[in-house]
Amino acid sequence: MMQKLIPMAICYDFDGTLSPGNMQEYGFVKKLGLTPEEFWNTANILAKEHKADDILSYMKVTIDESHKRNLPITREDFMEYGKTIKLYRGVEEWFDRINQYALKQGIKIDHYIISSGLKEMLEGTSIASKFTEIFASSFWYDENGAAVWPAIALNYTSKTQYLFRINKGCLDITDTEGVNRHVDKACRPMPFENMIYIGDGSTDIPCMAMLNKAGGHTMAVYKKGQKQKAMQLNLDGRAHMVAQADYSENTNIDKFVKAVIDSIAADNRLKITRKL
């Protein structure tokens, strides 16, 4: 009888984690005729004036500025901008390589994005097909296909909801009952202990803290030469590991994830042995 594969999940923030910079700065901010500084300053001022959520504010500015210029932005436009997003070294090859390593250990990895960025842009990236699900902010579109209103907004605290969705196997974001339904720990399809969260900044702290308490694994990554913020996450007990954002073979990210895979496989063998 063929042994059932052990489930494992790796959850990624996106901006600063898989890609340098903010995805909003690839294409559409430029199309609006704004510099990144102008765009973010406008969004930040709006949030402070109205005591509004930062994510909802940048989404409102996106819509407002497109209306001012009579430049409606469609889902297809966002996906085209997504194609131009740069990725960190090794990201393109990372998923297939780490999946193969895990399979040799009897483990099946599902990859997820949990991001405050735009789902529509993420769906246009070259790696979109590598993810079981992309959880991210998104727009509501009118009958002409133009973005008119925020549909989903993920901020630093709401991101934790999606760890529970993965844990319970409740991936349909419209299913509000399922994600809140009590499910015995032993019956949840993706144990927290078999999950890794990889992020780069303060918006990842609630996810890291929650997963740490639940027995999962966390990593803070950083752009070359910008280690301080990630190190602080480690010093504050938020992230178990700190590594430069390079997903190539034999880098610290690669070694850490493989070590977690080996540990999960070993724990599973121990559980089986105890039952003999």
Can you walk me through this structure?
- This protein is of the alpha/beta class and 276 residues long.
- It has a single domain, classed as HAD superfamily/HAD-like (Rossmann fold, 3-Layer(aba) Sandwich).
- It is built from 11 helices and 7 strands.
- It has a 7-stranded mixed sheet, with helices on both faces.
- α2 (36-50) packs across α3 (54-68).
- It is globular, with a radius of gyration of 20 Å.
- The two termini are 16 Å apart.
- The model has no long low-confidence stretch (mean pLDDT 93).
Provide tags for this entry.
Rossmann fold; 276 residues; 11 helices
**What is the H-and-E element order?**
EHHHHHEHEEHHEHEHEH
Main sheet: strand order: 4-3-2-1-5-6-7
Q: Helix/strand-derived class?
A: alpha/beta
Q: Total strand count, please?
A: 7
How would the blueprint of this fold be written?
Elements: E1 6-12, H1 28-31, H2 36-50, H3 54-68, H4 75-82, H5 91-104, E2 107-118, H6 119-122, E3 133-141, E4 147-152, H7 159-168, H8 176-180, E5 195-199, H9 205-213, E6 217-222, H10 228-235, E7 241-244, H11 252-275
Parallel strand pairs: 1-2, 1-5, 2-3, 5-6, 6-7
Antiparallel strand pairs: 3-4
